[in-house]
Amino acid sequence: MSRSAERRVADVRRLLAASRSVYEQRARWVPELALATGLTPQGVELGFESLERDADEDEVRALVARVPEAEGVHVVLSANVFVAPLRAIALARAAAERVTVRPSRRDPVVARALVDALRDDAVVLVPGRDVAAVDRGEIHVYGRDETIAAVRSAVRPGVVVRAHGAGLGVAVVTRAADVAGAAASLAPDVAAFDQRGCLSPRVAFVEGDEDRAVAFAGALHAELRAWEARVPRGELTAQERADAARWCDTLAFVGRLWRGAAHAVASLPPGASLAVPPAGRHVLVVGEPDLAAVAARVAPIARFVVAVGSDDPGRASAAVPSHARASVLGRMQRPPLDGPVDRRSV
Question: Average per-residue pLDDT in the chain?
Answer without folding.
Answer: 95
